[in-house]
Amino acid sequence: xxxxxxxxxxxxxxxxxxxxxxxxxxxxxxxxxxxxxxxxxxxxxxxxxxxxxxxxxxxxxxxxxxxxxxxxxxxxxxxxxxxxxxxxxxxxxxxxxxxxxxxxxxxxxxxxxxxxxxxxxxxxxxxxxxxxxxxxxxxxxxxxxxxxxxxxxxxxxxxxxxxxxxxxxxxxxxxxxxxxxxxxxxxxxxxxxxxxxxxxx
Length: 201
What we know:
Elements lengths: L6 E7 L5 H10 L4 E3 H11 L1 H11 L4 E2 L2 E2 L1 H9 L2 H25 L5 E5 L14 E6 L2 H12 L3 H9 L4 H7 L2 E4 L6 H16 L1
Parallel strand pairs: 1-5, 1-6, 2-5, 6-7
Antiparallel strand pairs: 3-4
Helix pairs in contact: 2-3, 2-5, 3-5
C-alpha cells in the first residue's frame, strides 16, 4: 500500500501539431514532462554504448567532434527503411531505459508526462497509461514547420508521410487536443488534467 499510484501520460502528434506548446502549459501547471525526442538526441551523443553501435551501423564519420551529424544520418535512413529500423532498435531501448530512471526522480508525482513524436511507432506507448493526441489542420502544420525549421514545403510533407496520420493517432489515443489557433489550448489541457487527477484520486 505504501507506494503512491503514478499515472504516466504520453503526449504525441505529428510534426507541427504543437506538442511543445502543450508541454509548456503542463510545465507551467507544475507537471514534469520528459521530452523523448530531445533525450534521444542527447543519448546519441553521450551514451558510449549507443555511440559505438551507431558507428558500427553507419561508420565512424557520422560523428564529427563527438557530435552525431544528424542531417547526414537523416539522409542515409530516409531512403532505407531497414537502416532506420536498425537505428531505432539502438536508440529507442536506450531512451526507454533513461525514461525509467527519470521516472524514479519524480516518484512522488501523481502524474508525469512523456512527449514523443513517434510514441506508437517507437513502442514507447507501452510505457504509458494514457495518451493525449494533438492535432491541427494539415496546412497550419506545414506553415508552422516551414517557419520554425526554415525548410521547404516539400521537405515538411515528406516528413509527414513518415508519421502516423492524425485519424489513426486519434483512434489510438485516450484524449484529444485540437491546436488549430481557434480553439483555446489551456482549457483543453486543464480539462484533461482534471480527468487524469480523478483517475489517480
